[in-house]
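Fold it.
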Amino acid sequence: MNHYSFSAERPVEQYHKTDLGFLIALFLLWGLGLFAMFVCSQNYAMRAFNNPYHFLQRQLIYSGVGMVLFLFFCFLDMKYIKKLVIFIVLFSVLLCLLVFIPPLSVELNGARRWLKLPFKMTFQPSELVKFSMVLFLANYFDKEFDKENEEDRTVLPCVIGFLILVTLVLLEKDFSTSVFLIIIGILMFFVSGAKLKWIWPFLIFSIPISILVITSEKYRIERLLYFLKPSEGASTVNFQANASKNAISAGGFWGVGIGRNLKRLNSIPEVQADYIFAGWAEAMGYIGVIAFFVLLLFFAWRGYRTAFKTPNRFAAYGSFGCISVIFVQSMVNCMVVCGLLPSTGIPLPFFSGGGSSIIITLAMCGFVLNASRCEEKDEGFRQSAVINSDNLYTL
């Protein structure tokens, strides 16, 4: 049978050197994120908590937790990670359900998306869903590939599990994250070799559902309408977006520096969260923005390179999904901050405060770094994938 091969068909027998380029890019992005938090959050933290380093300290604490998960997924053998997938998925489902229990969760702007943690900290289960969904799909596609008979392959259980995760996030009134999960899921379906006949009906079905969900909430309609008319709602819905664009423009080419003269930045509500990229642009200018995108592209290239070279199918699919989550999410956030997309609430990996994002981002990076050590010495082994739509295997 002629299969599309995204990764090797032979088992992993040896682990070799870690991808040093990916590791360097990872720590540079993490370091830049901490520096941006230091620059952007001081004034607001001083006003709100009488401590200019409040958000930076919290980010360091969450980073410590994330680093533990980073090391766990980096050094645990892939075969054991595969065995843990079902437990990770069930755990993420449980956390999503706990959000609907008022004493255990935090309500903000009419939505319950965060679980209470000790020391006045919170965790957003939808961030874990991103990672667990990637592992779930990677594990399923790997198992389906091993079936000898094409007739035995089915995508239905995979779609059902995928839709359950998306629905749980949607019930938390987190429409943007649920759409983001669908995008990542479709990308993984494509690289797995699933025929397009399974993808098109799913896409067509998603359109009316998305329209129904958008029109069911007034604030979603307002966001969309005011996005199409940016000159209106300058003091309400579009206030944050306009303030963000003004901060980016004020940065110029070299930026205004890291002092207290970031006047435009201080007008952005909750700048340490989803709009921190605007603060980075004002402080460091276009040169800082270019440096960020160069580093992000290098990070993505090394990650995708790992996905296409590792001889372990589960590691390949998982690495592709993890890097896609981080890269696509980064691009979406930057486009929102620049006014190219409506406000979504999607955080900027490594940069945005809140904690949940940095924890899961570091965990996913640990998985990718683990996959980068999977190599074969056989010179005849094909190290790269060739995507050919005529060569997709049937699910």
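The first strand starts at residue 14 and ends at 15.
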